[in-house]
Write a structure and sequence with these properties.
Elements (H helix, E strand, L loop, with lengths): L23 E3 L6 E5 L16 E6 L7 E19 L8 E9 L9 E2 L19 E2 L3 E15 L11 E6 L176 H4 L18 E6 L11 H15 L9 E3 L5 E3 L21 E6 L11 H16 L8 E5 L12 E5 L1 E3 H4 L7 H5 L1 H9 L8
Parallel strand pairs: 10-13, 10-16, 11-13
Antiparallel strand pairs: 1-2, 2-3, 3-9, 4-7, 4-8, 4-9, 5-6, 5-8, 11-12, 14-15
GO molecular function, one term: N-acetylmuramoyl-L-alanine amidase activity
Protein name: N-acetylmuramoyl-L-alanine amidase
Family: Belongs to the N-acetylmuramoyl-L-alanine amidase 2 family.
Amino acid sequence: MSPRGARARRANGKKRAVWLAAGVVVLGGTGVTAVAVSGGGEDAGPGDGSRPAKAHVLALDGKDPKRRSLPRTETQTFSLIGVSWEDSGDTFEGTAQIRTRKAATGEWSEWSDLDFDVRAPESAEGDASDVRGASEPLWVGPSDGVEARVVADGEETAVPDALRLDMIDPGKTVKGKGNGGDKGSGKGNGNGKGNGKPTASPDATPEPSDPAPTNAPTTAAPSADPGDTTGGSGGGEGSQPPTDEPTGSASAPEEPAPSTAPTESAPGTDPTEGPPDEPTGAPTGAPTDEPTGRPSAEPPTSEAPTDPTPSTVPTEEPTGPAPTTDPSGTPEPSATAPTAPAIVSRADWGADESLVQDPPAYLNKVDAVFVHHTAGTNDYTCADSPAIIRAILTFHVQTNGWNDIGYNFFVDKCGTVFEGRAGGVDRPVLGAHTYGFNSYSSGISLLGDYENGGTPTAAAKQAIADLAAWKLGLHGVDPEAKVTLTAAADTGVWTKGQAANLNTVSGHRDGYATLCPGASLYSALPGIRTAAGNSPYSTGN
């Protein structure tokens, strides 16, 4: 699905930590070397029961240029897994399947496919010398064994160089305490705006996991609908929806988060329901609308202002390269900004700020919102959401080599909204989520897989609608409108420099050749746009 072609990898002067800092252990009988990777913290936290997220890798070595395999192998405990390779410009074309062993029961999962529809951002961040190509990560729950098989597709295609498995242990946090705090990040994590705790999980019997964040939400979370929230975790052979998994490590059980069962939505009352969009595919002709502006060749990487008050962001179209500082200069409280929906801060979901080496970069304006899904499994409790996001942060930084987590926001199936990339939820933070259009947009990712049977809940759809309405409203953008943007790269749907006519609330597949955000979530986007237009957070209301 991804465009093919090598891209020059240039060092841009960024100072990055060297992650391969721990011991090397040869696993008996496998001939595979496991390199333990340290995120800079100790195994235990500061005496409060917390521990930092950690990554470790297994090399997929071999002489066959088209195949790699890993027999059943014991390894350190992990909950999220993916594959990566040396050159991010070498797009992998083929199939990678993994199966994992549950740490608590020793049961092996069915085979699951990994998705290969992610690209390094087209900004300077994507040209850093340590950026790697990678699959989308797959959440599997606490596991201590893995088996893998990778096959390149086509006569002229080979397995990429330095192919490896990347496994992430999301660690554990204590209520309201992030791993590493704001240490060295220079970030305003949400500016104190609308932090909230996750609502109750729709699962009948939630598993123990991270304690829920303690700050009460400023708005009530919508109720979940009775739709299917247990979609399949991949299209591998013999794949099936995963069974319930423990949400804590077998060696370090975590406290359960109290919850109550939410009220289910009545049939036919989902305010986001609407006719499905047709996938755009490759455009048939150049749109006549004029683009709002061309993206900067190298989006800014300057440090965020330290004043935590919200900025007044200009509403005019960008006319040139994005500024190197927040375009408003010294931020002043915005008189027209609507009240924000409840958003769980990075501190409350446990972001390890020591991973983030460079300050955030900003856009002139957020012209559009792209909706994504994380893929992986739908069989998670909402108490798992902070751990899933911590694992994705660690994967994006230590595996992909990005500066921070790629998405600007996350939403889970209970409708809880989480702050993603640092820099201020009310500011136009440059993310790494939609290749070719990052310089104009904000990215919202729904936890779960909505391509292989999963159905987004009413709570999740309403949360996406409210968040999109608020975020676009800060920039005077109608969530039910169209916008014309200039593609900053060849995306498989648009060519570089082409004028792309898009909805202001679009799916990832509208901008890039991918199945994301999945068929069922993509078909829900018309209703989400309508709900955003009617949202109390929309500036039109």
